[in-house]
Amino acid sequence: MESETPVRAAVIYYSAGGTVHTLALAAAEGAEKAGAEVRLRRVPETAQHSGQHAAQHAGQDTGQDTVGGAAAEVRPGSPLSRVATADVPEAAVGDLDWADVVLFGTPTRLGTMSAPVKEFIETTGPLGSAGGLADKVYSAFTSSGTARGASGAGLLALVNVFCHWGGVIVPPGCPDPAADAAEDGAAGDVALEAVRYQAWRAVTTAAALAAHRTHPL
Predict the structure, then answer these.
(1) In the chain, at which residue ranges do the beta strands (DSSP E only) sit?
(2) Is the C-alpha dihedral spanning 166, 14, 101, 139 positive or negative?
(3) Engineering a disulfide at 22: which of 52, 58, 187, 188 sits with its beta carbon 3.0 to 4.6 angstroms away?
(4) Domains (ranges, CATH) in the chain?
(5) Each residue of 7-41: b (16+ CB within 10 Å) or e?
(6) Other CB atoms within 10 Å distance of the CB of residue 151
(7) pLDDT on residue 69
């Protein structure tokens, strides 16, 4: 898809141990393939969240977190994660203002989004109150670390936010078989292809809306 004014897509994510970072890279690829101008942005670790989990998982160097009996992504703030994402700029509210399409990526924690993503979203109040978050296309992807890890619940938590903002929601869906085949856990080839397709679908949806609809306001 080529356009004189390309769709602007922001992929905003938090990754504790690298899985969501890998998915976010694939989402950026899918958005670029659809012809979008893309910003890849990471949500930083919060001091409270990092310290809390470091205390809970002191002495562990690999593997899956289990917080309150629910599986989560690998240990937050791990050296591997910090090195892999060092060159990715931190997310800012201005990235949401800039974008036509926003894709959020987060580990699922206790059936909802991770604390750093929630804290980032709570900084968007002024922009949202001014109507700056409405009428954009939104989508989201998650990782729960294990099968049956409540990824769907994590997605629904973000959908609630998108509804509050007045966004146009493009769910993962399954018009393409790959999008319905993604699994929890590590980001394998099927999951990566699914998130590429999801980002492509979000961008092409935004382009179609821009081409065929004049907003009444």
Answers:
(1) 8-13, 37-42, 64-67, 70-74, 101-109, 112-113, 137-143, 168-169
(2) negative
(3) 187
(4) 8-50+62-212 (3.40.50.360)
(5) bbbbbbbbbbbbbbbbbbbbbbbbbbebbbbbbbb
(6) 23
(7) 30
